[in-house]
Give the backbone structure.
Amino acid sequence: MSARFWLHVHPLLALIAVAMLAYVGQLGFRGRQARRGGAAMLRRHARITPYVYALVLINWMLGVTSVWLGRDDLDLAASGHFKVGCYLVVTLTAALLLSRWIDRVPNGRTIHPLLGALAVLLAGFQLFLGLQIMPK
């Protein structure tokens, strides 16, 4: 496969990752609000989210690799797109780690959804910034 093909894999996976982040975010939010079916939504949220996290990490690495190997017009790690991507990975990592000790951390059940909401907002902003540097 050509290098040009791989340059377009990152943006395509980004669309999927943002959609999946929004989906698991709404599962978590609705699961906390719902009187009926809330526990099932939270279980689904807990089951799916690690895969979405892995997709975001893989896509972050793919983005770095695609700039490093195929984008001579961009400086590696110099764009706002890269910085927001790093913030997104850090935010999701914090949310994932907090979820493992959510009942033991004071205010864990308050902080975790705030981190999730921040991650969804960062992902949306990340998409916007990525559109500015899409390969032609």
